[in-house]
## 1
Amino acid sequence: MRIIIAAGGSAGHVNPGLAIADKIKQVYPDKESAVLFIGTPTGMEARLIKNAGYDFFPIKMAGLQRSLTPKNIIRNINAAHLYLHAGFEAKKAIKKFKPDIVIGMGAYISVPAVKTAAKMGIKTAVHGSDSYPGIALKMLSKYVDKIFVADEDAKKRIPNPEKCVITGNPLRSNIKFEDRDEARKKLGLPEGLTILSSGGSNGSNPITEAVIALLERENEAGGINHIHSYGRNRGNPFEGVKLNPERTIIKEYIDNMYTCLSAVDLVISRSGAMSQTEIKAAGRASVQIPWAGSAEYHQYYNALAMEKAGAAVMLEDKDLTPQKLVEVVMRLCQTPQKLREMEKKAKEMSSEYAADKILGEILDLINS
């Protein structure tokens, strides 16, 4: 089997592509399979894909700016020029690699790669990781043979629902979750309800500011552990804040996320697709704070899906205050049975066999 995967833009697009590649390599030995990734040379995909050991074909692309300022109009003209050139580059890669199928992972780099492959008569598919499909996925829906979506809500929003297969979001096979008590001990935390909070790798000032107030309230209540990541390039906002060192872990960046997820009872996070996928896979209750600046406010729909399922409480950016976060979290902390119910619902939403489902659909397409 020979497969091209076009992925870029964010970890939410790249990591599911790597999970699909991992599954193919797991099922088919090296001599029976080959995987080539297409992405932009300056995006995070270049680093993530090369670190994972996969071949990478770079194509220059730029996203369209939605705010039409004079500067952005010039950027959009440049983006259109790059898009036209990207089609020629994608065709060169496809002709040389000779794939059985080309899959786009939803970012804008997917469009020239998948569209070109479809016009060449090659089997194609696209995967969308969000509950609200992005522009690239909608653009490609009429060209591809199959559309892999995260959930039922996403399927309802696709122009060609008859092509949709609900697969969920695949996680890489090297991800392992641990026993809660053992993970907590590994982190050096004592017994007690444990909370993990983060605003993403770059941090979120509103979330961190609210968490400072929450930590003060937790210290008053006693018996609560808290792990928080405040993000890179923001300085340490906790300087001068009175913390309980025995029960608190404050880091710029969490590099052992799966141990932390395993250790906690409640997660406070943004509502990116992959963050949610990890929370569901771990089976953890969460307070979802969708980022108001996400494209088409897609994070809102991700959070809404979890809240509707009873797996999370949603708190929008516009409603986020230190007082409100303290109120929501302390109410959940005082109802452990509610947390256990939310954990169960989150686990029910997880897509443990997403990569297997997608591989099965790929084989059906290739053999059809």
Note: The longest strand covers residues 34-39.
## 2
Amino acid sequence: MKHIRAVSLDLDDTLWSIWPVIRRAEAELYRHMSERFPRITRHYDADDLRRVREEVYHSRPDIAHDLTESRRVSFEVLLSEHGYDTQASHDLIERFLDLRHEVELYPDVVPALERINTRFEVVALSNGNADVARLGIGCFFKGQISASEAGVKKPDREIFQLACATLETEPDAVLHVGDHPLEDVIGAQQAGLTAVWMNRSGDAWSHEQQPHVQVSDLAELAALLIPENDFLQQQENI
């Protein structure tokens, strides 16, 4: 790890568990839609709304990299189909984004980010639509690259190159950390980065190409990047 000078971090399922957040957000939004747009919810349950979103995602490759827009268009489709003003899709997506940011960080995240920040600049790199500033952890990041802003999503090489440009560091000196074997690990390796697989669930690796490193949480990563003796010495010198 001595060649590493900067870190890029995935967000969903790396810093928090995403599906409980999404399920809760979708359930709360469905309750709101039942009050505001009852003609929709009389014909669709919450699972149906998810299927409409997936249909939009697969039928609109031009916006497949932008999960926010893809979900907003699914609201637009439903509103139009049931005779409502499609402009309401903007309010619905804003409500969803508010709910989507009600995440519970894994307990290791903030202490590990504090430790990593003593030596490395960090950028957030995500296919999702979380904003680290809205989550109160923006202070740990030099910047954030999202697929919607990049115009491509992981594992596309270009999004990793944007992260390296933000960090002002060559790819071979950047460590990318994420939970997804293809999007994070193999994608990062193909872009020339060192890749760490965040395996919080203890899953078996199922690809021929191996991650450079595997960790079970961010504390383990921080300890690899900054050994305990080095970290304690840094604290004494502050």
Note: The chain has a mean pLDDT of 94.
## 3
Amino acid sequence: MKKRSATQAFDQYLDGLCEVLGHADRAAGLTGYCRALMQPLERKSVEPLAAYLDPRHVRARHQALHHFVAKSEWSDTAVLERVRAQVLSRLDVSKAVYWIVDDTGFPKKGRHSVGVTRQYCGQLGKQDNCQVAVSVSLATAEASVPVAWQLYLPQAWADDAARRERAGVPQEMTFATKPEIALRQMQQAAAAGLPVGTVLADAAYGTNTAWRDALVTMELRYAVSVVASVGVWASPQRPVPPAPRSGKGRPAVRHRRDADHQPVSVKALAHTVAARRWRTVKWREGSNATLVSRFAAVRVRAAQGDRLRPEEWLLIEWPRGDAEPLRYWLSNLPANTSLKTLVTTAKARWRIERDYQELKQEFGLDHYEGRGWRGFHHHATLCIAAYGFLVSERLAGRGQKKRYQRPKPAVPENFVPRGTPTRSAPRAKLHHDAPVATGTRHHRAATATGSSSTTVFMTQ
């Protein structure tokens, strides 16, 4: 059987996505948008995409793409379901599976883009004017892909009816914290029958005791970062048992603390771990070298609240030679879990960073310039759709030496799409005394930049 080309595979993939758009007229918008996202354009907002797809009719194509992404009422959820089905068909979920929770920021100027406010932006590493979206990625050791995506709507936006209406925020969208959004996304993932994974998250989520409790209620395993100040009970230290029953009323259930019974911070506990318990662990091959560090794991009970909580793992990373520990994780993986497995699991969160890096740098996730709720989510869904195809093709070609090549429609040799650096006009044959032609210059220029249907390939 003849092997499909990259272009044929991409066309078939896009056809599957078009089936869930709800109207046949929307197919051209999705296929055009996704094809343009696959190209090496400097900017991937609507206008540069339109200029690339149809340089002779930029305005008309821009209007069509803008309507498709900002106004058309197709379902992001339905498209993302098709994307994850494509990736899952090639993902080996017989081994370790992870649900990676994270959020990412989009720096913005002004105050009119939906969800914009002054808040922490991970991309900038500080508080600034930005939008923030929460996502859950399905991951294995081989690959990952976002399966849920939602803009965080700050309280100021959630309570402002006028701004909500202008930005098209759905009425059912009320204020929810980022951890609450992530929990809802995981509940929906579980209801959809996705392979259940160990939940990984940074300290913004993992330090939240109620959030970890909710994961336990959902019967999910987790390995989440926590801050150094989190309090724990380490054996043999425990809180004072509940007061004995006095003979009246219900038995006391609250554990107590006194001068001799106080929890310790995970940082303080790390300094008391015996030297024999520290091990050097290698967890994966990095781009330049094997990733290795020093770790210890201790059984502890989280000290939040007045109940005696279940035992779980505290994983500590303290690189040799450093004055202080570097990171801490709490995990409810089984008590017989090896240190190597704990480290490999906790460190698997790097894949969400890879997702965001490629989605932003290669697919223009942060290039959308519209202000509305629908457009923000539609653009992100289409970026994830294009990325999902790339992930699935990488999985299909696992073990091959030749790298996957993206399908790329050919354009005229001298065409420079909008959004790329301009080039100087050639001056070798400039004649200062030559007469200037009139009336047909722009017509000829437009004709010269006509597009071709021929397909060539570009190495990723």
Note: Confidence is low (pLDDT under 50) at residues 422-460.
## 4
Amino acid sequence: MQLAQSFGQFLLKPILSTFLGAEKLQWFETIDWQQESDRFCQAHLTYPHYYSSQNFHGITGGYLNAIAAITYDAVTAFASPPSEIWIRQQLIQAIAGQPTRILDLGCGTGSTTVMLKQAFPQAEVIGLDLSPYMLVMAEAKAKQAKLDITWQHGLAEETGLAANTCDLITAAFLFHEMPPQVSQLVLQECWRLLKPGGQLLILDGDQPKLRRADWLITLFREPYSKVYAAESVDDWLNKVQFEAIATQSVGWISQLTSARKTES
């Protein structure tokens, strides 16, 4: 695959060349992306139209190709001022207690998933994403960090996991990537999966700030960010009957929401 040629379709090519570097780009070139992504693919899975029909970040084919996986970390770093690592760390610091089974929904390239396993090494940690290409990158990160993480190809709104089995569910930069009606289904799935009293943490764009910054949505060419910004994660959670809902701004344009499934 000629990655250098493919980068021409991407909005932030100059930034990517700075973030990736020649050595990392060469490593990407050595991967048989089709073979590696096929290892994660669930044969029975059908990609929903809201996902397969969109060109996320201006990339043709959205997240269902290697270019999206290669460029994702650079884009996220650029879109998470003042520091992506610091912002993700705020999620880690908001975790209550010592969870033993953690699910990271829409894990992407595994940045948060790896941090979760590092923070709770004794916990079972699962990273789930709908892009098998993203999971190739996530697995590589975990191997480099020598961490045992389970990677699963699947839908955030229909994971197939057993009910009442998770102490903690996280979702970092997921909900702005889908229509609000799908976000509601994902939250219903979170409710089903969490144990009574279990915690849900959502890290994403700051909705009030994004409403006043259409230029950001245009810059990153996100198909659902405008409708995401117009809504309220807190309202979505209330509809599913989560409790202890609290949202705070983190960084310049992000927000962190914590909620709990009721004990009874």
Note: The CA atoms of residues 8 and 140 lie 25 Å apart.
